[in-house]
Amino acid sequence: MDVMTYTDARASLKDVMDRVIHDHVEVVVTRKNREAVVMISLDEYNAIQETLHLQKSPENARRLKSSISQLDAGHGTERDPEL
């Protein structure tokens, strides 16, 4: 995670946004005497929102954790999502 001041971010906003998108990094933008913000790509934001939505249900969260454990143990099967 990169950290930069508002002034520095503003001076190189295009480069900062390109780095966030292409390098998949988060950038914390600090502001004098104000709360900082985090810049992330839209894809990353959408993935976070989807994860939060899926984990709202305790049963769904349990199933997801179980599936991840099975994959980590090498018990997954590869499938083509286009089929």
UniProtKB/TrEMBL annotation:
<dbReference type="Pfam" id="PF02604">
    <property type="entry name" value="PhdYeFM_antitox"/>
</dbReference>
<feature type="region of interest" description="Disordered">
    <location>
        <begin position="56"/>
        <end position="83"/>
    </location>
</feature>
<comment type="function">
    <text>Antitoxin component of a type II toxin-antitoxin (TA) system.</text>
</comment>
<dbReference type="InterPro" id="IPR036165">
    <property type="entry name" value="YefM-like_sf"/>
</dbReference>
<comment type="similarity">
    <text>Belongs to the phD/YefM antitoxin family.</text>
</comment>
<dbReference type="InterPro" id="IPR006442">
    <property type="entry name" value="Antitoxin_Phd/YefM"/>
</dbReference>
<dbReference type="InterPro" id="IPR051405">
    <property type="entry name" value="phD/YefM_antitoxin"/>
</dbReference>
<protein>
    <recommendedName>
        <fullName>Antitoxin</fullName>
    </recommendedName>
</protein>
